[in-house]
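Repro:
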Amino acid sequence: MDSRDRILAAVRAAAPPRPAEAIAAEAAALLADAPASRPALAGATLAEAFANKATALGTTLERVAALAEVPQALRRYLDAQGLRPSVALQPAAEFAALDWGGIECHATLAPDEPVALGLAEGGIAESGSLVVHSGPHAPILLSFLALHHVVVLREATLMPYLEDYAARLAAGAIPRNAILITGPSGTTDIEGSYVRGAHGPGFLHVLLVGQGRESGLS
């Protein structure tokens, strides 16, 4: 018996196999009590909770009433940041019919791209996180290369907690890439000094698109 076999034998002796039914029952009991262990959300509605959490983490946010208002909101952000009216635009069907007059939109994404605009798959109110999936019309580098990452998030896609996203993911098609974006990229690894944009976009701006009324927490 080699050292590997001895270690595994000791592990098995210390924790003998248990019936699958017992393990499943314990898991169900933990899940049944999940609401008691969840933190309270940071707002009275999903949109308010997401906005409060996201902005506390350095994300900037503007709320707009409809998708048609996105180009004007994007232009306001570009002007406020002193940026040229030029953006790498995700080739999403939701953007195709919008009026981008006055903004130069291009599909190619340069390594030093100043601004990229994308569409979130959803948002998590608990953490202020954006959910982004890759796909034929959602290049994943759009979320990583630009200095300014502007993301359109629809209120209808907001979820209260992380496990709500896990359940939605398990019930549908699994994307090749699924990322959670929580605030702009930054690090204090180097001499304790904050460096913006260390591993991705240094600025994260969310355009939160309404749906006519607030999404409740239930």
